[in-house]
Specification:
The protein is built from ten helices and 13 strands. By secondary structure, the protein is α+β, with helices and mostly antiparallel strands.
Length: about 350
Amino acid sequence: MAPSEPDIGIVMIGFAHGKGAKVEIGRGLIFYAGLFWQASKLPWLEVQELARDFDGIIATRWPRYYEEIRGIADGAGRDILDILALNVRSEIVFGQFSDGCTSAYCRSDAYSYLGQNWDWKEEQGENLIQLTITQPDLPAIKMITEAGIIGKIGLNSAGVGVCFNAIRARGLDKTRLPVHLGLRLALESTSVEQALRQLQDIGMASSAHFLIGDATTAVGLEFTSSTFAQVPVNNAGFVVHANHMLLTHTGIYEPHWLDDSAPRVETMERNIIAAGEVSWDGFRTLFEDETGYPCAINRAAEGKGEFPTLFNICIDLRRRAAVVRVGRPTAGDSGQVLSFEE
């Protein structure tokens, strides 16, 4: 059978991304080259070869994503293996470095809010970009991502939002969907139910947690390369997650990672319960909490704090709108509005 023709539209989406974020992609590649070397003594040529392991399976099973990655490489003037490496960074040396974050969903008869702080190395903050992606027959997407990566954190025009927490449970299956491509798939879904069904049908290459919400419900989807578990909205109307598994995954080993992960969950839950009916401003304030500083919900790069909060996103799922604050949410940024509201 002859190979299918490339989707020119998706190639151009990638090309525009690569060309527009050429500087940020270049800096991001320097950042990750240094991190791979620091964490595992891998020179970038070896990182590229590890990324090559994913080349054929992504091209075959998820050709739209592969063509978009190829478009980014062309637009940025980079080898496609460079951009593949960014998109499968969670799988190349899984568990040796991971971003730490706190996410939450709150719901009542009057509102449905979803949000998180994204915490990572300070140097990568300047390489974050906001993307708006419009594709035929799929919801439009607005997301915050690391330049060169096609899936991250955000919302879509169908009112579905996605947040992300790194997990360090062991296990890798290179034939399944890499984490950041899974985030993109979730952002292309029209409901929580559709996102869950597709992700679980395909299977995930490594471990993480996605908090996926819409106007009616949310589910915390914990997964490894061989297991899935769903954290439902509790009786008080919320879900909170950080960087450790809340549910049992039979046969999976999860090494202890961040001492502050469980306290962050406990603090967020306590604050939500204390708030009762959560206003929009009150929801945004939840992510400003500094209990346990510097290793807090609102993290800082001081003392034991290895990485600070680089941005906060809060999504009003009923309005299909979000506010993104760059840096720590107490840093004074009034926020950028991302909206599908008519």
